[in-house]
Prior knowledge:
Layout: H1 5-17, H2 21-27, E1 36-37, H3 41-46, E2 50-54, E3 57-62, H4 67-76, E4 78-82, E5 87-92, H5 96-101, E6 115-122, E7 128-138, E8 141-146, H6 151-167, E9 173-176, E10 180-186, H7 190-195, E11 210-215, E12 218-223, E13 232-238, H8 242-252, E14 257-259, H9 262-271, H10 298-303, H11 309-318, E15 322-329, E16 339-341, E17 347-357, E18 362-370, E19 379-384, E20 387-394
Helix pairs in contact: 1-9, 4-9
Subcellular location: Mitochondrion
Protein name: Aminomethyltransferase
Organism: Phaseolus vulgaris (Kidney bean)
Amino acid sequence: MRGGLWQLGQLVTRRLAHGDKKAVARRCFASEAELKKTVFHDFHVVHGGKMVPFAGWSMPIQYKDSIMDSTINCRQNGSLFDVSHMCGLSLKGKDAAPFLEKLVIADVAGLAPGTGTLTVFTNEKGGAIDDSVITKVTDDHIYLVVNAGCRDKDLAHIEEHMKAFKAKGGDVSWHIHDERSLLALQGPLAAPVLQHLTKEDLSKLYFGEFRVLDINGSQCFLTRTGYTGEDGFEISVPSEHGVDLAKAILEKSEGKIRLTGLGARDSLRLEAGLCLYGNDMEQHITPIEAGLTWAIGKRRRAEGGFLGADVILKQLEEGPSIRRVGFISSGPPPRSHSEIQDEGGKNIGEITSGGFSPCLKKNIAMGYVKSGLHKAGTKVKIIIRGKANEGVVTKMPFVPTKYYKPS
């Protein structure tokens, strides 16, 4: 799926408009029979979801509205996404936090119960195996969600290190939440609509916080987070209650919150300046290079203790050779792998994600350039189909974030 979901969404829109569903399946390198389906699959189809293969799953790329319209509606009203292809798991035991700290850059021990953070699983060279949102539910229970496309390698990585940790007497076990499904409710109406379905006062739940609570009659894991830059929630719900919860959310919103697919999810996260693993982060890119230095806890910077710490801490001290930055550009929208040149025509980097911003009505992109050429306002040229187009390094997020935090 390298190259971004935005491009796939445009291809799907064109192909389906001409009835060419076979071409879509060929483009995505999977047959329908091979794909896993979330509990919402039939619900998507009934509501006009255009299903495509993604990370081994049949997922909606869009619905009856366009990717442009659904992106704008998320920012103005709200969106409901099925993200059940992602993998939720729990680590339990008195050594759950110290075990996880061997694998990620976050200060897990320093998190207060009921709070979480974005983190990165690193390898021995300091590269990113995956990014993940982790939450300390209690001192001996850590809940985390990993990307669908990274599930197999992530679980194998965690299991390998867990066996070694337990062999030395460490107290940790895990449970993979395949019995639960995951919904992401995003946008300005997310909280007021969800408040109709729970007795918990959501105004007291801030960005990055977690609760186990009753929503629409079933026990859910609720995290105030998301992947759009908007206020919102990720809701882990027992799969047998998932469709009922989705229906209730849409009903309470009186049509203002719409089912939204992966196409708009990609444009929303790009506008928010958020990484897509496999495009903007990979195993050869460190958290420092990716602009995620803030995610390394202060204690972890002093102590290290995670895989690749020597490489990452050296970059912290000396600075990285490349940096992830944002761009505004003219001409066609930049795409993954588009070359970036300085004004003299010298190669200085590569685009990793790009597209047309539905909200800003201009081309936006992110990519990596050599350090020293990463400052906002630096003029560049972006090569698309052999032609140089004007671009400028721009601060991210492109669209201001609206995370719900204490005033």
